[in-house]
Amino acid sequence: MRSFAPDYELRTPGALAEALALLAHEPGQWKPMAGGTDLMALFEAGRLESKRLLNLQRLGELKGIEISEGQVSIGALTTYSEIRRHAELAREFPLLAQAARETGGVAIQNRGTLGGNIVNASPAGDSLPPLLVYEAELELVSARGARRVAYAVFHRGYRLMDLAADELLARIHLPRLGAGWRHYYRKVGGRRAQAISKVCFAGLLRSDSVRIALGAVAPTPVRCYRTEALLSGRQSSGDLIRAARDELQREISPIDDMRSTERYRRRVAGNLLEEFLRAV
Amino acid sequence: MPCVVGRSVARKEGRRKLSGQARYVDDLSLPGLVHGVTIRSAVPRGRLRDIRFGGDIPWDEFTVVTAADIPAENSVASILADQPFLVESEIRHAEEPVLLLAHPDRDMLEKARRAVELDVEPLPAVLSMDASGDVIQSYQIEKGDVDAAWEQAHLIVEGEYRTGAQEHLYIEPNGVLAVAAPQEGVTVWGSMQCPYYVHKALVRLFGLPDDKVCVIQCETGGGFGGKEDYPSIIAGHAALLAWKSGRPVKMVYDRAEDMAATTKRHPSRTRHRTAITGDGKLLAMEIDFSIDGGAYATLSPVVLSRGTIHAAGPYNCLNVRIRSRAMATNTPPNGAFRGFGAPQSLFAIERQMDRVARAAGLSPEEFRRRNFLAEGDATATGQVIREKLDLGGLMDRAFQLSDYHARRERFARQNRESSVKRGIGFACFMHGAGFTGSGERTLASVAGVEATSAGRVRVLAASAEIGQGANTVLAQIAAEALGIDYDLVDVAPPDTAAVPNSGPTVASRTTMVVGKLIESAAIGLKKTLMAAGLLGEVYSTRQFRAACRDYVALYGPLRSFSQYQAPPDIRWDDERFRGDAYGAFAWAVYVAQVAVDMVTYETRVEDFVAVQEVGRVVNPVLAAGQIEGGVAQAIGWALYENVVWRDGRMANARMTDYLVPTAADTPPIRVVFVENGYPHGPSGAKGIGELPMDGPAPAIAGAIENALGIAVDRLPILPETLEQALG
Amino acid sequence: MAEKIEIRFRVNGEDRAVRCWPMSRLLDVLRRELGLTGVKEGCGEGECGACAVLMDGELVNSCLIPAAQADGADILTVEGLSAGEELHPIQQAFLEEGGAQCGICTPGMVLAAKNLLDRNPAPEEREIREALAGNLCRCTGYVKIVDAVRRAGR
């Protein structure tokens, strides 16, 4: 264990207002902690720079899944297990449930949260491509009030977010999907469980439109608008798939790293796109 | 008389493992305990100029040990004496230990570790086997006349095969607890496979008489060879801190340190040149086998020797030349890992046999049938097979269980239309049990049994239970030989002060060699009781107990020991590397079925059949457990486990980044044992611990070749590898 | 520098109070403060599952839980599974099937099995393997672990 525990403060506000007041008073000083799966792993590796942590676990406003006519609202502290177990959510947004099932293992799913996955901002986050294709909207709160940001523009660069120093991610809103969508999700990791994505693909298709998002192939999770535009409303064919594969390569920028290679990621991303188009 | 051998009796220490009561070294504590940590070089080669103690650390609270504090010899007892416990000035590999710190607070210790700066003048480093000219050890085996044979060849086929490093990843990291004082001596408890190896190392380090050093193995959470010789180093380190501080010292590695700094499986490169006749018979084999030993010799000479001897596989060939060498590089020294060189060389020969078969226009199966060793044939070292050997029969059994032919045909049809390509492949191999050649004779192991005043029996051996079932099997053998209930037999904890040196817990020797000694000792104990008139020819367990109690009351302690005697018909020439390399070989044929996903290039092992002839099965559940575990570990080596090197250091030294298969990745594994009693094994048993490591990788490579039509000759076979090979 | 906190929680059916750092790992609190050495450390990264305990009825990796987040929780470790000398049926099944070899992964593995069987009393093989995928074993190849869970489920 490579950190000196006494150096780390952790505060547990009892209510959201208290948490926001602290963040307003000392912006940038407190690192919010949800389930802790990411932050504790960094802590144990001796790489958690923030020495002051804000435990969000008592904040009820950040919990719960609410279904209303136009949207589903998921609290930032919703765990992967809770997502998996929520029948309506799983039925309407199956890619999110599937991503939750493939993240880590059961013990990680019981603690890891959707909000934590978003603000950890790893380009390889498993739930992030589904959020992009489901066109999620994030609700950010602070002592100054609340605002909404389209998830599509939330990530500005590698681990850079449109999240102010005094703000917390409170809820994730998913607009209800109409009928007729086909869903596709595939995570490619080094093994079947407990693996960080090498490539992650989420796709939705309906007669008149297509949505494609990938993870682990760019500094942020990426929605591939140009590839979508090429495909939208067009009849599938070998030529079209080939053209789409080429366009996709222009929209992603994978790298060589410890886990995999640029070459592999490019090829597999293209294969996943093709599998998606042929399957749906 | 109860029959114990051959039954799946419950694991001796099973209850305490299941209930959480088992005590591994990190569960132990002593009053006044301090924790120890090692400061290591980040540079693969250099000269140590200075050590700086920086930061905001209360250094006066710490014990600091450097090479200058070593009482006697700064040399880790091994085959050569080339490895120091602590760097003096020359650094030969990254992670090499330079100094040691101790402090009562484990967290403060970690803070201090980061505040030590090593000033090292870097020197050019050799980081790969191919770039090294430094030979640690070399061997040459000659059989027949290879050079003349090329002339008569109908066909000559060449191939090169490589395997990568593998990390043991026992779930319990290395750890020890030491107390030491110049007047009293040294006592160490720890996670280890060989208490007497550690004992020898500490004797030399401290210059103490044998009886002043005591080493006790605690419950150990896996070894696989990774705790064969490495514990000598961590034990020495903890003992040095204890010696200097006057306090008990516990040293337990965290996962990153254990992965990066301790031994791994030797990477290998094998080159094959094979000549066959017109009717598909082996005419000549020339094999060049190299392994990367890392910076110090450690066990490389013997890993090399075992790999060399197994390099020609279970095949009959009259003309064989094997040249082998262990090369030194500036990387952390490699060491024992289940199989010990044989998985590497057997991977190569099996892949080569497939390659030759293909070139000859024969099926992999047919080619092998024409060339299997049989009774009366001689191996590459000239060892004549003196037992019934039916490799063809084992192969048939494995094919039948795995539905090999039907599936091969079905996959060929289905693969045309499918984005998941299936294949089925197999490997044929053997594994010698016990130390190579004259090794067992040199060890001259001793083991015994004791009858206690309570009327129970204790097994006295230094064999370490590391999960393989040693406690259980030795107790079964003793119970069988004594004709008593298994529950009456206990196994004494391996404590060098209390048990004889029955040799290391390695080389698939515990059941076969140590078990035989226990069997003999037990028979001796029984005879003593009979000779004393306390036991009749026929008796119950209760009567046996009474006899023990009576004997001890009348005459004092009752102990019976047996020392290893080499079977008379075993002859080995160390100089020329010829003769009977092993007392017994276990023989096997494994079949692997894979599914390769052409979208992601991932290979999944879907089904696995393991058929082996092992002499006699002492405990079916434990024996099957060994095979299943070894198969899974070899599946890991073949498909998942990749050590990433950067500047001579393991860059992916975390479980997140070095992947072993989970329960969701491994297949059902069907295990079949064939029995053919080995006369010198207890109840006919041979050794099996390492055998299952040898077969899966080549079987999987063969299955992938069957699925995709491409030959893959390197391990690990990652999805990235296949994507690249498919082009 | 933080200040120590007092956490109050229920461990193996008993109410306990411990003083520790807010970021002390639950793993260390259980092992060092409460002497529950049946909870094992295999990796300190949340990858191997050796440290797994049940917290409020759910399987979690105790190495990833800061003590402050365990305040008020109900924890079950392997020691709480057996009642004195009597093994829990899951432990008994592991013993009979050979599901434990070196034993270091066993405490976490047994609790993962309980976590599954509490929710799914008669799981299929695929479900067992998925439920145990976060618990690494290097000894068994998982075969007899799966057999033990199946047996315990019957």
Description:
The complex is a heterotrimer of chains A (280), B (727) and C (154). With 280 residues, chain A is α+β, with helices and mostly antiparallel strands. Chain A folds into 3 domains: 5-55, Uridine Diphospho-n-acetylenolpyruvylglucosamine Reductase, domain 2 (2-Layer Sandwich); 60-175, 2-Layer Sandwich (Uridine Diphospho-n-acetylenolpyruvylglucosamine Reductase, domain 3); 183-279, Enolase-like, domain 1. Chain A is built from 11 helices and 14 strands. A 5-stranded antiparallel beta sheet of chain A has the order 4-5-10-6-7. Chain A has a 4-stranded antiparallel beta sheet with strand order 11-12-13-14, sandwiched between helices. In chain A, strand 11 (182-189) and strand 12 (197-206) form a beta hairpin. In chain A, helix 9 runs antiparallel to helix 10 (238-251) and helix 10 packs across helix 11 (262-279). Chain A is globular, with a radius of gyration of 19 Å. With 727 residues, chain B is an alpha+beta fold. A 7-stranded mixed beta sheet of chain B has the order 3-5-1-12-9-10-11, sandwiched between helices. In chain B, strands 7-15-14-13-8 form a 5-stranded mixed beta sheet, with helices on one face. Chain B is globular and about 75 Å long. The model of chain B has no long low-confidence stretch (mean pLDDT 97). Chain C folds into 2 domains: 5-80, Ubiquitin-like (UB roll) (Roll), CATH 3.10.20; 89-153, DNA polymerase, domain 1, CATH 1.10.150. The model of chain C has no long low-confidence stretch (mean pLDDT 97). With 154 residues, chain C is of the alpha+beta class. In chain C, strand 1 (5-11) and strand 2 (14-20) form a beta hairpin. Chains in contact: A-B, A-C, B-C. At the B-C interface, helix 1 and helix 16 of B face helix 2, helix 3, helix 4 and helix 5 of C.
Give a topology summary.
The complex is a heterotrimer of chains A (280), B (727) and C (154).
Chain A: E1 9-11, H1 16-25, E2 31-33, H2 37-44, E3 52-55, E4 65-67, E5 71-75, H3 80-85, H4 87-92, H5 94-102, H6 106-109, H7 114-120, H8 128-133, E6 137-142, E7 145-150, E8 155-157, E9 160-161, E10 168-175, E11 182-189, E12 197-206, E13 209-215, E14 222-223, H9 225-231, H10 238-251, H11 262-279
Chain B: H1 14-19, E1 34-40, E2 46-53, E3 63-65, E4 90-91, E5 97-103, H2 106-115, E6 116-122, E7 135-143, H3 146-149, E8 155-163, E9 175-181, E10 185-190, H4 195-206, E11 213-217, H5 230-245, E12 249-252, H6 255-261, E13 268-276, E14 282-294, H7 300-310, E15 319-328, H8 342-360, H9 364-369, H10 391-402, H11 404-415, E16 420-433, H12 439-443, E17 446-451, E18 457-460, H13 470-482, E19 489-491, H14 510-531, H15 541-555, E20 558-563, E21 572-573, E22 578-579, E23 584-597, E24 603-613, H16 620-640, E25 645-646, E26 649-650, E27 669-674, H17 691-694, H18 696-708, H19 719-726
Parallel strand pairs in B: 1-12, 10-11, 14-15, 18-19, 24-27
Antiparallel strand pairs in B: 1-5, 2-4, 2-6, 3-5, 7-15, 8-13, 9-10, 9-12, 13-14, 16-23, 17-18, 17-20, 21-22, 23-24, 25-26
Chain C: E1 5-11, E2 14-20, H1 26-33, E3 52-55, E4 58-61, E5 74-76, H2 89-97, H3 106-119, H4 125-131, H5 143-153
Parallel strand pairs in C: 1-5
Antiparallel strand pairs in C: 1-2, 3-4, 3-5
